[in-house]
Amino acid sequence: MNNGILLLAAEGEEGRYALFAFLMSIVFVGVGLYGIFTGKLMIWGRQRWLFSLVGLDESSPGFPQLIGGCYCAVGGIVLVAMTVQAMKAPEEQQQVARPDIDLSHLPDLSKIPVHMPPGTNNPRPSSSPPVSSVPSTEAPKPRENRFDPETTERLRAERMKAEAEQEAAKREKERLAQVAKEAVEQMNREKEAARQAALELPDPPLPLSYFTYADVALQESPELGESGSERFADHAPPGGVMVGAIFFVGKNYGASIAGIQPIYQVGDKYVKGKICGDETDQPVQQLAEAGGVVAGFKLMTGRIIDAAQLAYGPLDGTKIDPKQGYFGEQIGGDGGYPGNYYAEGRAISGVFGTYEKGKSLKSLGMYVIRRMQVTGAAPPSSMSAELRTFTSSNGKFSVQAKFVALNDDGTVSLEKEDGSKVKAPLSSLSAEDQAYVNSMR
């Protein structure tokens, strides 16, 4: 406080400025406190306009207290600046008041005579180094002789061991990388084989009759799910009905149905429809049992179609017996709410719905055949042909199959009872079987 009084009482122009600043800080603090406690707005038109730029006006809550706080902050800053300046003032005054002493009139001390007793040598400054700089008398540690044969051999052995360990670690790393690479390749091969198997259609175990129906005989089932941005529709080829589908499982929401490709049967052949939705690398094929057709479906839906399940039944003429119906495996994820539709004993001729491109199916419905006629009898089953036992020429091997064809390369194509096909050289069959094949040309 004494330092502040000395600064405020200083003479000259600097003292007057300091006194004025000190008084203004007291005034600002007083005005700010008055505005805070009374709630009066201590600003005028121009200042109000400035605060309105940031969205503040007289109606803003606490606006008078904010203005009072600003006054107090300005006054406090000025007061702190004055206090700091007051603390520096005594040091500056001491530096100003300290006189410079002129020593130029004193004689040079180096030229003053010194009287020494006779026989006393002129003292000289000691040239010996300080105690701390005297070299240590401690004996240095013996250094290892790297040129010693035993040491050289030991270092060489250690270096060779380290190099061998590094090489072994490198080979192990390469081996593990190769094992991982082969595992990934094997997994990809199995995945691709499963994908190809799901996309490849077998031969129907039993043929169906040929059917006809008019477009007006088709009825749309309820469309289950939520409507999407992209629509799709697919119909069976002439004479066919829907007997299964290939579902494409996607990764949206963990697992969901990204697309569906209907499978139709026309006589004794399976025919694929178009892919409705998106094709993925995880197809799953479902087909009705021999003589069966699709009779409806179950869905698990929410914002998307999470899972799907087809309903089947045996076709007797143009109707399905609901009492003998059955379901295929549920495909997709575990989410959603259940919904279903059954065609009440009628066959299905196609599907329609919506999907979100690159994600999932959003809704699904089916075209129901209300009335259809049989226009052609079912073609003869491939398994109704003659089955016989073919035996190898040495009698060690035999297979129950039917003759299919004699190929140009001298091999015989045979079809087993389960529908799989095999080839064998004609010369490898028994003489009786060779005669039978030649008679079937």
TrEMBL record:
Compositionally skewed regions (Basic and acidic residues) per UniProt: 140-151
GO molecular function, one term: ubiquitin binding
Membrane spanning stretches: 20-43, 63-84
Region of interest (Disordered), residue spans: 107-151
Keywords: Coiled coil, Membrane, Transmembrane, Transmembrane helix
Domain SLA1 homology: 384-440
Residues in coiled coil: 152-200
Protein name as it appears in the record: SLA1 homology domain-containing protein
